Amino acid sequence: MSDVPVADELGGFRAEVQRFLVSALPPELAARTKAGHTLSRDELMFWHRTLHGRGWVAPGWPTEHGGAGWSILQRHIYDEEAARAGAPSIIPMALTIVGPLLIAHGTDAQRTKYLPRILDGSEIWCQAWSEPEAGSDLASLRCHAERIGDEYVVNGTKIWTTFAQWADRCMLLARTATGDRQQFGITILLIDMKDPGVSIRPLPSLDGMHVLNQVYFDNVRVLVSDRVGPEDEGWGLLKSTVGHERILNADVGRARALLDRLIRTVQANPGAQPGLRSRVARAAIRLRSLEVLVMRALDSPDPANASGASIIKLLGTELQQEASWLMSEALGLYGLPYLPDVMQNGWQNEIPIGPDDAATVTPFYLFWRKASISAGTSEIMRNLIAQQVLGR
Ligand SMILES: Cc1cc2nc3c(=O)[nH]c(=O)nc-3n(C[C@H](O)[C@H](O)[C@H](O)COP(=O)(O)OP(=O)(O)OC[C@H]3O[C@@H](n4cnc5c(N)ncnc54)[C@H](O)[C@@H]3O)c2cc1C
Hints:
It comes from Neoroseomonas terrae. With about 400 residues, the protein is of the alpha+beta class. It folds into 3 domains: about 10-90, no CATH class; about 125-230, Butyryl-CoA Dehydrogenase, subunit A, domain 2 (Beta Barrel), CATH 2.40.110.10; about 240-390, Up-down Bundle (Butyryl-CoA Dehydrogenase, subunit A, domain 3). It is about 45% helix and about 15% strand. The chain has helices at about 10-25, 25-35, 40-55, 70-85, 95-105, 110-120, 235-250, 250-270, 275-300, 310-330, 340-345, 360-365, 380-390; strands at about 125-130, 145-150, 150-160, 170-175, 185-190, 200-205, 210-225, 225-230. The strands form 2 sheets. It has a 4-stranded mixed beta sheet, covered by helices on one side. A 4-stranded antiparallel beta sheet has the order 2-3-7-6, with no helix packed on it. A hairpin with a 2-residue loop joins strand 2 and strand 3. It is globular and about 70 Å long. It starts with 10 loop residues before the first helix and ends with a helix. Bound molecules: flavin-adenine dinucleotide (FAD). Flavin-adenine dinucleotide binds near residues 127, 135, 379 and 383.
């Protein structure tokens, strides 16, 4: 559905991506991704390593740091073809947040130590920023790090930490001082999640899955050499990282895959509710607008700081939520069963209820309620748009 016109010379690149996807993506994995099944750690890391083997796992990183160094149009083409083929998304934190942060603000020693392991997938990272009383108001965070000699000793808790249960390392925001401005006194530390002082409490989400966690830090020791940037001044380094995360959360590739699936479902149900087709068409038009906004932001000299990042995040998450709701409507009663086991493993010995992918629809709808909260809530995005774009 979404063939954005590209320059002729990029046709060869598109064909190269298509050939790679045909040869490297196992059909069973593509089918599971397309049906919306929850993929295991092994499946996600298999695809990470496959992309790494081709040199494509970090499309936005410069080539001197092991990235693909793709242009904006090449990234768009890859996303489009990957979504169409059913390639899984990969675990994003290290590649889109930690890596760019270290490339921009890390030491040579940090880049040498961490970037290769991020690229080859030998270390999974999580992002420990939010706290029980510091979410939208992140600068009020209290998890504390005290410097003792050449180490920091960390105490406190973080919440909603995605994939902490799998993570080898985390990027932590810690309070090292207090001052007149809340933003002062925040320090970025790279933590080894195997430290005996780290413990994790799973937080099952509305769809029944375990992705989120509360993480406790009890006298966790971190070498000063694992601090990124100056002590107390981590906040200033986060600005571009947060912008990256917002653009990432729009997840245009996934939104496109979801809309393609929705269109197939509506086409297979000619008796679907009157008016549904025009709402699907409106969602497809909004997706086109979003694609253009994302490309424009990524093409700007400093994508993450572009004021469009908040608009992209807001529109992207609203679109994903709308599409997941339309999918439920399109399937009618067949979409109602709540079968998280089938979401993970597909139908086993049961007779499928309705179309093959119907069982994943309700958990998927529930899962996407989170999109307007994570990486900054929709209310906060509207505040930012009012301040930064409308100048109010
Ligand atoms: C699925 C998921 C994954 C996440 N993953 C991570 C992760 O990996 N690492 C991490 O650190 N964090 C993660 N988070 C946390 C996320 O960043 C926070 O949930 C988010 O920033 C909101 O903070 P909060 O939950 O404390 O809500 P609050 O900030 O307490 O907000 C509560 C409500 O008040 C509204 N509100 C707050 N302030 C204002 C205001 N000034 N104006 C108008 N309305 C306002 C909000 O919009 C919201 O509706 C994740 C969250 C989710 C849901």
